[in-house]
Amino acid sequence: MLGLTRARNQSRNGRSLHVAGMDFADPKRKANVVGKIVVAAGLIAFCLIMIKQFPTFNSPSQFSRREMGVTHVLVTGGAGFIGSHAALRLLKDSYRVTIVDNLSRGNLDAVKILQQMFPEPGRLQFVYADLGDANAVNKLFSENAFDAVMHFAAVAYVGESTLDPLRYLDNKKTAEETEQQF
Ligand SMILES: NC(=O)c1ccc[n+]([C@@H]2O[C@H](COP(=O)([O-])OP(=O)(O)OC[C@H]3O[C@@H](n4cnc5c(N)ncnc54)[C@H](O)[C@@H]3O)[C@@H](O)[C@H]2O)c1
Hints:
transmembrane; Rossmann fold; 2 domains
């Protein structure tokens, strides 16, 4: 008796009906859920179409194509002391700059300040990559059209270099391989 009353109340509230341990979902509720899913799918499809219509969505980035009168310089180690100052000088002189750095040293905030100073599209991009990673370097060069490379990526502490010379040799080798890419 008590069980049946509860079942009736649940049915009125739009919940599932329990009879003898079986669970029957309310068809109205089911239709509601299906309706919501269809609306959500429609909205997602609409957003995707709108995004694809956006002019820059399919077009290659400005960094990947050469432009008359624009010189694109790759600054390796551009989050570091010398690299960030070189990038600033280049940007002030209207160069297009790509900074690549693995942030093992240096300071990402320096890059962020440069990005705030030169927010226009096609001026400055930052690529987080290790120059010792051949795939990353290949991708960097295949996706960008560089006119010049200024190479400052380095581990550059005299004391440390005497304690861990192999690390310094490795990074130097990496640098030479990067230069060969160009
Ligand atoms: N600081 C000076 O006074 C000075 C003077 C003369 C020459 N230099 C030379 O300039 C170069 C840069 O020196 P710095 O003082 O700017 O050093 P730094 O440590 O401030 O900057 C080096 C940058 O290179 C990055 N880096 C290191 N290895 C990398 C790798 N494998 N891939 C990607 N990024 C990597 C680091 O994260 C760092 O941001 C060095 O070759 C140094 O010998 C420096």
